[in-house]
From TrEMBL:
Transmembrane segments: 6-23
UniProt xrefs under SUPFAM superfamilies: Thioredoxin-like (SSF52833)
UniProt keyword Zinc present: no
Record domain Thioredoxin: where: 45-185
Identification of the protein by name: TlpA family protein disulfide reductase
């Protein structure tokens, strides 16, 4: 019971923080372009902008950069092990990864490690779900803030140039993901 109360308070806090960030968006400074490829486009998280680049460590401690996937369509999925909709969505993500990998599609899972009870919860979850797509750890919550994640799961669909084409809050099934990928080249 105590854990449920803490979880509810945490979720309410996330929602309030998201609302605060949303309404204060106009006061934020625009993100600057980080690469020469993106100089002609704004960097940001809105449709038509180049997604902000980042480097995070994967589960083996290896650095992974978002820009390493240029030339491929990317489903950038923000999730946590304690999130019931994330648990429902993961098998669909894995199927998309397996069925679309030959079509230059990659799923990049970003675990919101800051919100986990323990870092040690992530690896068993990945093994239980039999996930083989790349997973990186946002241990300090910086990426969560950059991408303004206020609900789990949240997925950004990027085209081969790293441009944000769709943003989906909430769980998706295989058909929804497949339709999104058909629209993004």
């Amino acid at each position: 019971m105590k854990k449920n109360v803490i979880a509810i308070i945490f979720i309410i806090g996330l929602v309030l923080y998201g609302g605060y960030e949303y309404f204060n968006k106009s006061e934020q400074q625009p993100l600057q372009s980080a690469s020469s490829e993106a100089e002609s486009r704004d960097v940001g998280i809105e449709k038509g902008q180049v997604a902000p680049d980042f480097t995070l460590q994967d589960l083996s401690g290896n650095p992974v950069r978002l820009s390493d996937f240029r030339g491929k369509r990317v489903m950038l999925n923000f999730w946590a092990t304690w999130c019931p909709p994330c648990r429902v969505e993961m098998p669909h993500m894995q199927s998309i990864y397996e069925n679309y990998e030959s079509e230059d599609v990659v799923i990049l899972g970003v675990n919101m490690t800051l919100t986990e009870k323990a870092l040690g919860d992530v690896q068993p979850f990945v093994q239980e779900q039999k996930l083989t797509f790349p997973i990186v750890l946002d241990e300090d919550g910086e990426l969560m803030q950059t991408y303004q994640i206020v609900a789990y799961p949240t997925t950004y669909v990027l085209d081969a140039d790293g441009v944000v084409r769709e943003k989906v809050r909430g769980a998706m099934n295989y058909e929804m993901m497949s339709e999104l990928l058909a629209e993004v080249k």
